[in-house]
Description:
Blueprint: E1 3-7, E2 18-28, E3 33-47, E4 50-61, E5 76-83, E6 93-94, E7 99-108, H1 111-116
Parallel strand pairs: 2-6
Antiparallel strand pairs: 1-2, 1-7, 2-3, 3-4, 4-5, 5-7
Amino acid sequence: MEKYFLSSLENKQLSYVGECEYLRVIKFKTGKNAVIVKFDEPLQWSSSDGFHGSDYAIISARHEGYDVIKPKYFPTFVYVTVLKEKDYDFVEEIETEDLIIIGIGELYETYDKAKDHIFE
């Protein structure tokens, strides 16, 4: 599948540039599309339980009219989430209750655009 670059102007935990490889398309029970991605370096975040990391995440479009499966607009604004308990290999359909929101990010088509936050 595709590879894109994730960064964020709004979220400190996602401010670095991470390459994410699309692994598989899934859906919310509402019908909204999402994509399971694998990062080149683990996604890290903190919570009241301490620090956490994951090689995988689920991204979904933040705004109506934007598609995370085959983005037409860059950057594409996305929610970056991880599963609470389910196994990424077996999940086909999700609900918001299944997810921990890590932050809001932007998908870019190149590393340089993500690093410099180039909006076109």
